[in-house]
Amino acid sequence: MINKVEKKYTDGEWSSYKMTLTSGKIWSVPLVADNTDYQAIQEWAAIEGNNIIDNGA
Amino acid sequence: MAITRIGNPALADVREPNFRNILINGDMSIAQRATSASSLTGSGYNTVDRFRTNMGTAGTWTQSQSTDVPTGQGFATSFKMDCTTANGSLSGGSFLIIDQRVEGQNLQYLKKGTSSAESTTISFWVKSAKTGTYIAALNDLDNSRYIANSYTISSANTWEKKTITYAGDTTGAFGNDNGASLKVQFWLVAGTTYSSGTLATSWESNTSANNAVGQVNLADSTSNEWYVTGVQLEAGSVASDFEFLPVDVNLERCQRYYHKWVSEHVYANIAIGIVAGVKNGRGVYQNKVQFRSAPSLSADGNFRIVGDASATGTGSDIAVIRNNTYIHYLDFAFSGGSNNTVAYACEMGANNDADAEIEFSAEL
What kind and span of H or E run contains B152? Predict the structure, then answer.
């Protein structure tokens, strides 16, 4: 289960998500629609109360 | 020159094309993630490649790649579920399913959604401590359609071969793409949400109550274990012999969906790159198998960037920055060690850690 999601930036551009699971495992997720982790993040973020952290570039 | 088939002459005309098994790793021989995983209460991929656990409020389980196999059938491994905390009072929404998801582009020859739709037959060897009725189903994810059938475990703790044929479905074509179109499901636990109706033994619009009617509760005792191997789904109404593939072929088929790089040497490199910042290296890792989609990455262990110095860090500081199905641009952004000179070439890999690993996942 997803615990936390952050936007990651490279050279000032949003380049991936950093997804932390409740187990503590961390995944770097590409911004690609047919990646199932990317899809899971979209579903998770659509639930009220879940917010993707964006600390900027 | 005539070609003579060696073996049973009665089978001489039987068509057994290569790669007829729609499922991957049906002999349970590949387990890249782990050979055992304990304390499981939720969903995910845990051990044997391509076989996913889907679970909610159904006890606690240990899953493993087992060497308990049916005698004399050629199998070396099986998939095992072992109940470690029972749930004898299921909630309505309880479920435990082992499934495999199949890309739609690999299913076009079934001609689903046409008047020529092919029937399919699943065959497998199964062994369970609990006798009774179990459900095996096909779940069309593109069109929300479903068909199921039951099989019976007649004798406890005894390997039995089961064969089920599903009719072709003239409604709803599978998408011709790399998305999950079909789930092949083995039910082990089903609360009333999934079992209070009439079992969907013909293709129908997916109705939860009709999914797993009659399914025994395999979570009702810590004595319960369930094994399966030799899982094969093929077109037609006849189950052919299980199609054994060479291990390299089987592994590469699994690696389309998941691949684990393990250092196996204290300073093994995963990529050659360039120093982009004094403690930031970027390189390219090219997998020999084309992934289903651009994969996610998870790294664990100690890593380093070696240019003219050595910056160090851990797996949590490694990310994908650009990605496609062939080439993966890795970003190592560390805080430890020494400063490299920007624009120097660098090696990127394990830092005195033979167990460092990076997982790539393009699972369905």
Answer: strand B145-153
